[in-house]
Design a protein that fits this description.
Blueprint: H1 5-8, E1 27-33, H2 37-50, E2 56-62, E3 78-83, H3 90-98, E4 105-109, E5 113-115, H4 120-128, E6 134-140, E7 150-151, H5 156-163, E8 178-179, E9 183-184, E10 188-192, H6 193-198, H7 211-221, E11 226-236, H8 247-260, H9 263-274
Helix pairs in contact: 7-9
């Protein structure tokens, strides 16, 4: 088998490309901080340890405007820091970051993730080989428990059942399996930049929740495939803010209502009913 496109682009885990080879970063990583200065430092340290930093363009958004100190370019191919005059939603922030992206691939990444191994290379190769169009690893918590960061297309009944703790049990994936769910969480999404552009980014009408469900559903309606590689793992300790009363719960309910009332959801269900 010939050399993959990813290898041709110079993504090797230990070798340092020449100056000519790194004129364009391979991956642009968009991270939004909303009071996550401490977590962001841990993330970037783990990212530099496990990934070829000189092939990574970092786009860090300070959603509070003055929460993050001025960062140094360090080992990265390049660094862009965006500061908001007022807080914006998840979708709007990543859409704005994409305007500064110059990488072949675009990665949406939460600031409270920790890299345990290199994942960009393997996922990018799978995308290059046509095994998927939007990819993610499995997410585990600090105890090693696998999180339900990918699912089938939800329904209002299933969502209520999950909140009441009576939904169907989530099945742990087999190690090394390739999974094709209906959607993956916005905690980590890797795709060719052309895919993000084709979908015109996230729907900015979603403030904090369900923009990832909508994004993946729109992708599938265009014939694109969502992939999870269960042989790759990142650590993520979510706050589960939407399970508590307050603004986060409000945005979660609002996002769910918008999605279930959308033409995107109606078309996806119609296709399922005829499958």
């Amino acid at each position: 088998m010939g050399q993959s496109a990813v290898a041709r682009r110079g993504l090797t885990m230990r070798s340092r490309p020449t100056a000519a080879a790194i004129a364009q970063p391979l991956i642009s990583v968009s991270i939004v901080s909303h009071g996550h200065a401490s977590a962001l430092g841990v993330l970037l340290k783990s990212l530099a340890l496990h990934e070829p930093a000189d092939r990574v363009q970092l786009i860090v958004t300070d959603n509070l405007g003055d929460d993050l100190p001025e960062a140094q370019p360090g080992p990265w191919h390049s660094l862009v820091t965006l500061r908001n005059a007022r807080p914006r939603g998840f979708a709007s922030n990543h859409n704005a970051a994409f305007q500064s992206a110059s990488g072949t691939f675009f990665c949406v990444l939460n600031p409270d993730v920790v890299f345990l191994e290199g994942v960009f290379h393997k996922l990018a190769e799978r995308l290059d080989q046509g095994e998927g169009d939007i990819a993610a690893p499995v997410l585990i918590d600090s105890r090693g428990a696998v999180q339900d960061s990918y699912r089938r297309l939800p329904s209002p009944r299933e969502l209520v059942a999950r909140r009441l703790g009576i939904g169907a049990a989530w099945t742990k994936p087999a190690d090394g399996a390739l999974l094709y769910p209906d959607w993956i969480a916005g905690t980590f999404m890797l795709m060719p930049s052309s895919v993000f552009a084709r979908l015109e980014g996230f729907d900015s009408r979603y403030r904090l929740y369900f923009e990832d469900v909508d994004f993946c559903t729109r992708a599938r309606l265009l014939g694109l495939t969502v992939l999870v590689d269960a042989g790759l793992r990142l650590r993520h300790d979510p706050h589960r803010a939407s399970r508590r009363l307050g603004r986060s719960l409000y945005w979660h309910v609002r996002g769910a209502l918008r999605f279930f009332a959308s033409d995107v959801y109606r078309r996806a269900r119609l296709i399922e009913s005829h499958a």
